[in-house]
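Hello again,

I reread your note about wanting to compare the complex against the isolated chains. To keep things tidy I'm splitting this into two emails, and this first one only covers the full assembly. Below are the input lines as submitted, including protein chains and any nucleic acid or small-molecule components. They are followed by the predicted structure of everything together. The single-chain runs will come separately.
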Amino acid sequence: MFFLFPLLMGALMLIPGWIYFIVLLYFCWITVPNIFYGFRSQNDLMFTAMMPVSKKDMVKARISVIVILELLHIVIAMLYGLITTRLYTNIDYYFFKPSPGFWGLCFVMLAIFNLTLIPMYYKTAYKFGSALIVSITSAMLFAVAAQWLGIQNTKMSEIFNVTVGDHMALHSSILIAGIAIFIAFTWIAYRMAFKRFLKVEIQ
Amino acid sequence: MLALDIRNLNKKYPNFELRDVSFQLEKGYIMGFIGANGAGKTTTIKSMLNLIQADSGEVRILGKKMAEHETELKQEIGFAFGGIDFYTRSKIKTLTDVIKKFYKNWNDDTYSTYLRRFKLDENKKIAELSAGMKVKYNLAIALSHGAKVLILDEPTSGLDPVARDDLLDIFQSLVLDGEVSILFSTHITSDLEKCADFITFVDNGKIVNSSDKEHFRETYRLLNGKESDLHQVKDKLISYKVNSFGFTGLIHAGDFDPALDIRATIPSLEEIMIFFAKKEETYV
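Full-complex prediction:
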C-alpha cells in the first residue's frame, strides 16, 4: 500500500499551477504516521530485538524504509511533473513550476524532515507524536519560506517559473545541492538515531 | 559447559534496583527462575538479552559474552515472552516466512515436525491462538532455528492446568538429549516442583539462592510451634506468621537448633517464596 501511494499522490502533480510542495508533504502527513503507528501497534521493536540483528541494522532498516519511500515519492512526482509541463504549456505559474531547481528544494525539504524526525523518534524508538509534529512543522516552514521567496522575489520567480530553460546550469546545481543536503542530513540523522537507540530500553 | 553464566548484574531504576544478580546454568538442564511479581525476573531476563542496558555485570551465553557476540548468540537463543504479541493479525505462515530468513540454521523439516507435534495450524492468525499455543509456536520457531538455550519469561502464566502440564512435559523432553538448556521464569511454584532441575530465587532485585531444587529446599526449615516458643527463634527467623494455633516461620537450616522442641519440616518452594515476601513487608 505504501509503495502504491507515490503513484496516487504523484498524480496530484497533474493539477495545473498547484503548490507542488504539498504533493511530497502528503508523504509526511499520511505515510510516516501510519508506518510508525504500525510499528508500535504490532510490537515491532520487541519483535526485531528478538531477531539476530544488530542494533545498527535495526535502525538502518527503518531509515531505509523511509528513504526508499521518499525517493519513490519524489521520483514519481518528477515523472508526473514532466507530463504536467508538457501537458499545460500556456500556464502562468504563481507557485513553483516543476523544474530541476524546484526538485532540489524538495530534497532540502525532505532532508529537514528527516533530520528532525529520525533523531527525535529514536529517543524512544516508540513514541512518534512530538517528533512528527516538529518535523512536519519544520518541513512546512521551509516550504512556505521558499515558496514565499519565490513569489516575492521577481528574479527568483522568473528563474523558477518562466525562464527555466535559460538557467539550466543554476537549476542543475540547486538540484545537486538539494540531493547532497538530503544525503548529508539523512546520514547525520542516522548517526544520531543509532547513538540514541543504544540507550533505549526495549520494554 | 555453562549455558548461562550471569555475574554481578546491576541495574538501578528510580524505585527498583537489581543488585549483584549472579547465577549459572549447566548445559542440558532446566532452571526455574522464581520470584514474586515485581521481584526483578523480567528485568534480569531483559538485561541478559541486552534489551535493557545493565549498569554493570557480565552475561555469558554458551561461553560467549553477550555484549560482544549479541547477533551471533541470538542465532542460538530461543525466546518466549508471555503476554507479548507480535503481528497478531498475521497468519502463522506469514510470520514464519519472515522470521526464518533471519536464521542461518533454519530447518523447514524440523519446523513442520514441531507444528504437527504441537498441533499448530499454519493458516491460523496469531490472535486466534490460545496463550498455550502461542508459547508452543515460539518454541517451534526456536527449535527450528536450532536454539540451544531457551529463555522463557512466564511461559506458563495464564495457562490452564492441562496446558501447563503439557508444556512442562515438552520442556522435559527437550532437555533429554543434553543439548538444549532452558531458563524459565515463573511465579507458579508447582511448575518448578514438576520439572526444574535448578532453582534461582530472586527477591526484591537480589538473588536469594540459586542451587539444585532439593538442595534449595533443604537450605530452609519451616517451623511450627507454640506462640510461647517463638521468642527462642524469633531473631533468627526470616519471617513468621502468628495465628491462634501458634506460629509458622521460615529459617535458614543452619540457624536452627534441632534440640529445640519446635517442629521443623522442609518447606515447599511456595512457602519459601511467601515467607521471603513477608520479610519485605516487615521492613516496609
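For quick reference: The CA atoms of residues 112 and 139 of chain A lie 6 Å apart.

B.
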